[in-house]
Amino acid sequence: MPNLQTLSQPINPSTAIPIDSLAETRKQEVVQHLKQVIEPILKNDIVSLGMVRNLRVVDDYIYLRLYIGQYQHHLQEQIQATLSPLSWCKKTYIQPCTIPGVRTTLAISSGKGGVGKSTVAVNLAVALSLQGAKVGLLDADVYGPNVPQMLGLGHVDVQVIGTPNGQRFLPLEAHGIKVMSVGLLAEPDHPLAWRGPVLHKIVTQFIQQVDWGDLDYLLIDLPPGTGDAQITIIQESPICGVILVTTPQQVAIADVRRSVHMFRQVGVPVLGVVENMSYLICNHSGNALPIFGNGGGTQLSTELRTHLLGQIPIEARICAGGDIGKPLTLTDPSSVIGQVLTHVAANLEATFCSRSSLG
Ligand SMILES: Nc1ncnc2c1ncn2[C@@H]1O[C@H](COP(=O)(O)OP(=O)(O)OP(=O)(O)O)[C@@H](O)[C@H]1O
């Protein structure tokens, strides 16, 4: 183990190189080596994919967290092999972070509340499921957990079961999608008044302690914004990418910009932006009316060099579908939201294609 005392000494007398600067140089060297490890399905290196986090070099030892899905454990051996030529490195400690049974974890996020993040999450889960994927939806929106209602689930007591790995929450099921929500852990109609370390502990347990079985995709519906809760969830989950939801108006766009910077700082790839409530089709003229402004999603995706994944109109049936627990993508896949999210789901399948390429 490294001599932790050296951390408090700014100078290594033998080399006269400041310890901090030596560690930083070594860290950069490690990063360059790690960039040679390519994830075979995503065809990109594990650093750019945000799979390596909390990388530290202490003395002659390397520590890192590796955020992986089920079936990516082989990357650990590759990392060890890639780092073995570093002559100064006595040992690499890899802490694998995974959600048991889950191949691909994706987050749905928004800069501000009420823009339709949960609506998109629920309908995207349905679209993926209609394409044959096994899908789970984790409603981690501690400020407004609406997913159970949007999928027609009333307030049911969550069952806890014993597994070889300890006690686990049993997810509910709706329309073929496995569902777990922070809202189910609280009294109905009561706010979830968790803050600081308590919030951190509960959210961390919540992410790790659900018995999902085998899933191709776990979608995490994040709380809106860039506060403590979001950062904890992002840091504790093996999220492979995030889809941001916004409305076209400038205040919403400004908040999404902040979110994108947060994700990039933590190293989570932003897959693209879905613009919701983009326009309203006028019953009389049939024209598209840009109620919340025009071009915000396009402007944002150009500015932040990310993709505009689709534009969803304001439609009463989307709202009604959420209220009665029957997502419009399920009841009318040819609706605009159905088409947009089917297209997004097909792109996700093409990118993460877990079923076709892995056993
Ligand atoms: N395209 C749309 N057309 C009509 N109504 C919509 C549309 N998208 C969302 N809604 C409605 O807007 C409301 C807010 O949507 P939703 O709960 O999905 O937003 P959210 O961003 O997840 O909110 P929160 O931040 O509170 O979690 C809901 O009543 C939903 O049915």
Written overview of the protein:
This protein is 35% helix and 25% strand. The protein is α/β, with parallel strands linked by helices. It has two domains: 4-97, 2-Layer Sandwich (GMP Synthetase, Chain A, domain 3), CATH 3.30.300.130; 102-357, P-loop containing nucleotide triphosphate hydrolases (Rossmann fold, 3-Layer(aba) Sandwich). The strands form six sheets. The chain has an eight-stranded mixed sheet with strand order 12-13-9-14-8-15-16-19, with helices on both faces. Strands 5-6-7 form a three-stranded mixed sheet. The chain has a two-stranded antiparallel sheet with strand order 1-2. A hairpin with a 4-residue loop joins strand 1 and strand 2 (17-18). Bound molecules: adenosine-5'-triphosphate. Adenosine-5'-triphosphate is lined by residues 110, 113-119, 141, 144, 146, 224, 276-277, 312, 314-315, 318-319, 322. Homodimer. This is Iron-sulfur cluster carrier protein. Pfam families: FeS_assembly_P (PF01883), ParA (PF10609).
Briefly summarize what is shown.
The protein is an alpha/beta fold and 359 residues long. The protein has helices at 19-34, 75-83, 117-130, 147-150, 196-208, 228-236, 250-266, 296-303, 316-324, 328-331, 336-352, 354-357; strands at residues 11-12, 17-18, 38-39, 44-45, 52-58, 61-67, 91-97, 102-110, 135-139, 160-163, 166-169, 172-174, 177-181, 215-221, 239-246, 270-275, 280-281, 288-289, 308-311.
Main sheet attributes: strand count, strand direction, barrel closure: 8 strands, mixed
- Count of discrete domains: 2
Q: What is the CATH first-level class name of the largest domain? A: Alpha Beta
Structural class, from helix and strand content?
alpha/beta
Overall spatial form: globular
Radius of gyration: 22 Å
Level-2 CATH architecture of the largest domain: 3-Layer(aba) Sandwich
Uncertain runs: 1-16
The residue-averaged pLDDT reads 85
Q: Which strand order do you get reading across the main beta sheet?
A: 12-13-9-14-8-15-16-19
InterPro entries: FSCA_dom_sf (IPR034904), MIP18-like (IPR002744), Mrp-like_CS (IPR000808), Mrp/NBP35_ATP-bd (IPR019591), NUBPL-like (IPR044304), P-loop_NTPase (IPR027417), YlxH/NBP35 (IPR033756)
Pfam families: FeS_assembly_P, ParA
Family: In the N-terminal section; belongs to the MIP18 family.
Keywords: ATP-binding, Hydrolase, Iron, Iron-sulfur, Metal-binding, Nucleotide-binding
